[in-house]
Design brief:
This protein is α+β, with helices and mostly antiparallel strands. It has helices spanning 7-15, 24-45, 67-80, 146-149, 218-229, 247-257, 278-291, 322-333; strands spanning 54-58, 64-66, 86-91, 109-117, 128-136, 158-164, 168-173, 178-184, 189-194, 205-207, 240-242, 260-263, 276-277, 295-297, 314-315, 317-320. It has eight helices and 16 strands. The structure holds 6-O-phosphono-alpha-D-fructofuranose.
């Protein structure tokens, strides 16, 4: 593995596979990477620059906003609004579509993101991340409406996440596999360190917030009980459990060593189809997981096939090692 390959070089070489590529996508990705480096710096400094703690405000989900939720959202907006690659942006932290200011040109892509996923972990110094998804605007160079974003996950041009952990990593796909890059702070570049990431088809590790057990639907109850029964039970093997409460960290672990992550529909709030959001959590992570040989389902349908009904729509998420997801999906069909 040649560790010297920069993300910029990699993307330009990737671009050569894309018919009609104009270099605009590469330029968009470079702006996105600059935003991610800036966020990494803010997260890494943490309490030293007074960005910890919560605000009085709530986001559209009714969740208390952390200072860094707002700061990172602002960073994503400022670095991506000016270059003329986007027709609009949408974010977990903004109720409505962000229109590109009139002083800037419009472009042919849409950017939707969760600027700081798992932000409840910031104050306790556990890994958090940025999740992003890039779609084509239905009409280029025209201000995007909310409806323009409501495209099934299979339409994504690119999906990725940044993980602000012991090292800052960027993992992305443009539909030709999944590749991981690690930020070399001295050089200021992301370098290719995890080429062609693949999720093992089998696993003995599941991730779920077990405190919600009494609210789960029967198929999920059955699956988890069987994992807990171990080798004496119907699965005939022991399982391990993890829960980080940071989807980016969970997905990265699964990409690295396999596993299954579940945030299923539960009856805690019957009005909600799940906790995670389709447009900027489930869809980008599902694109990445499938491109790495995994699977991603609501339990009843492939997440990437879903027709979104709203920018902040929630969905149940069961993703990871293909054969394990198939077991859970099978229980939903039983
Ligand atoms: P809970 C973070 O808030 C998040 O959206 C995901 O990153 C994470 O997997 C999940 O919610 C954690 O939810 O209910 O365990 O706090």
């Amino acid at each position: 593995m040649h560790i010297g390959t920069t993300l910029t070089q990699f993307i330009i070489e990737e671009q050569r596979h894309i018919a009609g590529a104009t270099g605009e996508f590469t330029a968009l990705l470079n702006d996105l990477v600059t935003a991610i480096k800036t966020i990494s710096n803010a997260v890494n400094k943490g309490a030293l620059i007074g960005v910890m703690g919560a605000l009085e405000s709530q986001n559209v989900q009714g969740e208390t906003q952390k200072k860094l939720d707002v700061i990172t959202n602002e960073i994503m907006i400022r670095h991506n609004e000016w270059a003329g690659h986007l027709a609009g942006m949408a974010s977990e932290e903004m109720d409505e579509v962000y229109p590109i200011p009139n002083k800037y040109p419009l472009g042919k892509y849409l950017l939707v993101f969760d600027p700081l996923d798992g932000s409840s972990n910031v104050d306790i110094n556990i890994s958090v991340g940025t999740i992003f998804s890039i779609l084509r605007a239905p009409v280029a160079n025209r201000a995007a409406s909310a409806e323009d974003f409501l495209q099934p996950g299979v339409k994504q041009v690119c999906a990725g996440y940044a993980l602000y952990g012991s090292s800052t990593m960027l993992v992305l796909t443009t539909g030709h596999g999944v590749n991981g890059f690690t930020l070399d702070r001295e050089v200021g570049e992301f370098l290719l360190t995890h080429p062609a990431m693949k999720i093992p088809e089998e696993t003995r590790e599941f991730a779920i917030n077990a405190s919600n057990r009494r609210f789960w639907e029967p198929p999920v109850q059955r699956y988890v009980e069987e994992c807990l029964a171990g080798k004496e039970g119907p699965r005939g093997k022991d399982f391990n459990m993890r829960w980080v409460a940071s989807m980016v960290a969970e997905v990265h672990r699964i990409l690295t060593r396999g596993g299954i992550f579940m945030y299923p529909r539960d009856t805690k709030d019957p009005a909600k189809a799940g906790k995670l959001r389709l447009m900027y959590e489930a869809n980008p992570m599902s694109f990445i997981v499938e491109q790495a040989g995994g699977a991603s389902s609501t339990g009843y349908e492939r997440i990437l096939d879903m027709q979104p009904e709203g920018l902040h729509q929630r969905v149940p998420v069961i993703l990871g090692s293909k054969k394990e997801v198939e077991v859970v999906v099978g229980y939903h069909a039983a």
